[in-house]
Amino acid sequence: MSETKLVDENSLIGIAATFWQQYSAKTPQKLKIMDAFSLYCFILVIIQLFYCALVGDFPRNSFLSGIFASAGALIINICLRKQLNPETRYMEISNERAFWEYLAAMVVLFLTVINFLG
Question: Looking at the keywords, is Metal-binding present (predicted)?
Answer without folding.
Answer: no
